[in-house]
Amino acid sequence: MNDNFRPATCGGRDDSGEFVMNVRAQMKGQMLIGGEMVAGEADKWIESVNPANEERIGEFVAGDAADVNKAVAAAEKAQPAWAALDIKERGKYLKAMAKRIRERGEELLHTEVIDTGNTITKMKADIEGAAEQLEWYTGLAIEMKGETVPASSKHLHITVREPFGVVARIVPFNHPLSFAARGLAGPLIAGNTVVIKPPETSSLSSHILGEIAKEVMPPGTVNIVTGNGMPAGDAIVRHPRVKRISFTGSIPTGMAIQRAAAEGGIKALTLELGGKNPFIVYPDSDPDKVADAAIAGMNFAWSGQSCGSTSRLMLHEQLYKKVLDRVTEKVAEIKMGDPMDPKSQMGPMNSKHHMERVNMMIKSGIDDGAKLMIGGKRPPGKEFERGFWVEPTVFGDVHPQMKIAREEIFGPVLSVFSWRDEDAIIELANSVEYGLTAAVWTTDIKRALKAARRVQSGMVWVNGVGNHFKGTPYGGYKNSGVGKESCLSELLSYTEEKSIQIFL
Questions:
Q1: pLDDT of residue 26
Q2: Residue 25: per-residue pLDDT
Q3: Residue 499 pLDDT > 90, yes or no?
Q4: What residues act catalytically?
Q5: What's the whole-model pTM score?
Q6: Angstrom distance (rounded) from CA 317 to CA 230
């Protein structure tokens, strides 16, 4: 481990069995460019604070366009040799990355928890999921197949798939390590080299990932440039040698990336841009199971900071009061606390700026006349006086014209609707600009399938919620994005198809 970078905290239990957190050191996160850990051309830094208590936990490099240019140049230099490797050889490198992620799992876990505010119990799955994704794509790689096309009788027409060259992935703050590491799998196994741009907050784990890549990967195949969207992210998007970009984040930023990318050249983009996802409940559903699913689907365990959260709970009027009361009771039982404590079920917002936006949305719900069932403020207690805390919040009597009914909050706020007419609720579900996920609950399979087909979302759960399964495409309709991830089509999207015409 680099002496300049050590976990700022580690957790354990004292003799009484109580959880304690020990501060060890400040973090100083560098970038990975061309196989070297560097501080950047300008030697500028961004402070990182623990969202749970606002304590400074370290800093990471504020990269700029000069750093991006170096990273792209290094990636471009390394790409031909990387692409020339047999798929099995590339797969060995990815498996080695997965092995080192597991070996440094505790270090990554603690870093992610204190840097993001996500609870340690849930964050464990991010670490293992990143390793699994790298391994899974090594097996999927053989499916990058071409075709033979019977276009004529006197010629042989074939297609082959080739890598783009240098590709980029821009990562959000809610799962920074997971999205960065998982996002390497498809591009690398396809023969591309990669420039990763971590988020503007919570970038400390990228240093550890950089150390792992430096140790395991050929120089230049993986490059990591931290910093703000302007200038670092913008420079990546506009760079003429970056021909393929993947971004996860907000719709406005996604639209800005589309504009900037078009000014830098003709590029292929995958955009996963969030959602205002409906959870439609028919009157034959079990109220207790629905209430449990509503809590799980809202991702309170991630403080609601999840693009797939089913944040619009649409209850048939026959179930409305019963389910709303049960949801309110269950939300009241959610234990907020130090994210490093395994007993904690919900942590803080990721940043002060984001907390302020969530609070603004809650205020708009109250001002618009929604019924605040629970939450809506900073939790009481001395341990919550500092930090970016917002209680888990439930609104009832939500109507379509309200802001909280139409805009993504990306926080722990559930909006609950009552409905009577099926056509009207499907229309309401589809009335927003988003279309990422949806859930449909009913014991009538014909009704469920019809509703699933009518809902304009890229993923629909029937009598389930929130689960992701390898090989099933994940991505949005409408302004929730373009392209799919975690499936074969993601892998193929990192290749270009070439036709070869052989004259016999």
A1: 84
A2: 56
A3: yes
A4: 272, 307
A5: 0.93
A6: 48
